[in-house]
Write a structure and sequence with these properties.
114 residues, alpha+beta, HIT family, subunit A, 5-stranded antiparallel sheet, 2 helices, globular, binds guanosine-5'-monophosphate
């Protein structure tokens, strides 16, 4: 899949259902939702995989979690619970190489994941 797909969404060249935005983070609904609430939180700064997270961009990565927690409170699922997942590389199922925190809520989520 395109390396630049999420950059195209950030720059509004590709449409997306955007539900959250700050200076550094964008949140939009996954095109193939796996739960009633399935949002992808991405940094506007391109970071290819978790393997590229360093002390220099750690604050940006932390903001993805702030975004997820804020969104959960906003839609009223913070107390019931939700899941965030970030896949790293092919064996984990990463298909878009711009890190993204999957936010899943609105149904009971089993563990372990497949
Ligand atoms: P990954 O498999 O890399 O962890 O997650 C990539 C996610 O991006 C998938 O859940 C997939 O459904 C979603 N996705 C792929 N293309 C698009 C798109 O064009 N728009 C949106 N909103 N989501 C997409």
């Amino acid at each position: 899949m395109s390396e630049t797909l999420f950059i195209d969404i950030i720059e509004r060249r590709i449409p997306a259902d955007i539900v959250y935005e700050t200076e550094t983070v964008l949140g939009f609904r996954d095109i193939n939702p796996q739960a009633p609430h399935h949002v992808l939180f991405i940094p506007k700064q391109k970071i290819r995989t978790i393997n590229d997270v360093t002390a220099d961009n750690a604050a940006t990565v932390g903001e993805l979690f702030i975004a997820a927690a804020s969104y959960a409170k906003g839609i009223g699922v913070a107390d019931d619970g939700y899941r965030v997942v970030m896949n790293c590389n092919e064996a984990a199922g990463q298909t878009v190489f711009h890190i993204h925190l999957h936010f899943l809520a609105g149904r009971n989520l089993s563990w372990p994941p497949g």
